[in-house]
Amino acid sequence: MKIIKRLLPFALLLSFVVISYGINQSSPSSQKRGKRPNVALTVEVQQINEQDFQVIIDSYGKLTPKTQGQLTAQVSGIIVSVSDKFFEGGFFNTGDILISIDRRDYDIQVEAADAELAQTKVAFDEEIALSNQAIKDRKNLGSSNRASDFALRKPQMAAAKAKMQAANAKLKKALLDVERTQIRAPYTGRIQSKLVDLGQMVNTNTNIAQIYATDLAQIKLPIKNSQLGLIELPNNRSSSNKKPEPQSVTLSNKLGGAKQLWSATLFATSGAIDQMSQQVHLLAKIEQPFSDPTKRPLNVGQFMTAQIKGKLFNNAIVIPNTAIYQGSYVYVVENDTLQRRNITIRYQNERQSLIASGLQPQQQLVITALGQVHSGTKVKVNN
Asked: What is the DSSP string of 34-85?
């Protein structure tokens, strides 16, 4: 029994060796295969051709009146009547009487000035008569001595004439004050806010309303510094005598319903770079923004998007944005292989890019979406 226990480990070891040998001898033989053949990528290409390309620059801005200001009283008094157009949002025409001030005091001043003018006319006529009589008396006396101007009453006559002219000016001023008791609209426009009302006492230079003209509105459009070379800046040179061609702008109004398009025209460049955004602003004007019967009227203060017509590039290379990787390179096919080409973009919109450098006409641009692919990869063009 002791002998068996001693031989058992050796027996187990021998059995393990025999089994391992058998397994190795019975394992199937592996067959070596050759290298996989290179499979070419299938891509779609687009031949690069030169074309004319119109740059359209996107911007936005707030609609403001082109002409606006304060309507101011030029005389003092009690407001005795207001027009039915005198309310916030009210429209008015040139010459409409918006406010009337009590004119009775000014009518009295007219009467006093008229009476004063009549007195000065009498005094002036009297001096003329006295001067003529003095000249006649010297002729009758046969005096050969030269008479002084004072003796001929010339200074007295000049003084009387001056008083008459002053009285006449005083009358004109009194009549003008009467006219100014009726505050008239200086242009066709709209009341943005009214500051006074019926029965209120106003003084000279009191602001009575904030108004603006309705014939034109304007919008200030910021332009990126990188886009300044893509547009002719209007009215940007003090020495230029050549009138620039009007550049069109399309404005979108989405307020109050479906989008409506308005035509505008660039007319000026801002006089300085905006200190907050460090950008140049263009000014566009819109004609009759409140009276087009086919569209919803615009509103002062509303924001609008804009598309500005920029420069037209002839013989330009334009490619789809989907063919550009990381904004800096594309793939082209040359001799059935992919080749990476670094590019410089001059302008880009939502769909296309205007290429400044890196591509040539007649090259085959890959428009299939690719991942990280090395130059030299074999490809097959899908016709």
From this structure: PPPPPPPEEE-EEE--EEEEEEEEEEEEEEEESSEEEEE-SS-EEEEEE-TT
Report the C-alpha gap between 179 and 82 in whole angstroms.
16
Of 282, 292, 267, 283, the C-alpha closest to 214 is 292
* CA 352 to chain CA centroid, nearest Å: 25
d(CA 79, CA 100): 6
pTM: 0.71
pLDDT in tens, 259-313: 999 999 998 888 788 888 888 899 999 999 988 888 999 999 999 999 999 999 9
Residues 280, 59 contacting (CB under 8 angstroms): no
Mean pLDDT score of the chain: 86
CA gap 222, 58 in Å, rounded: 9
Token duo for residue 207: 């602001």
Total Cβ atoms within 10 A of residue 55? 19
**Cβ proximity of 221 and 59 under 8 Å:** yes
pLDDT tens for residues 18-32? 566 555 555 454 444
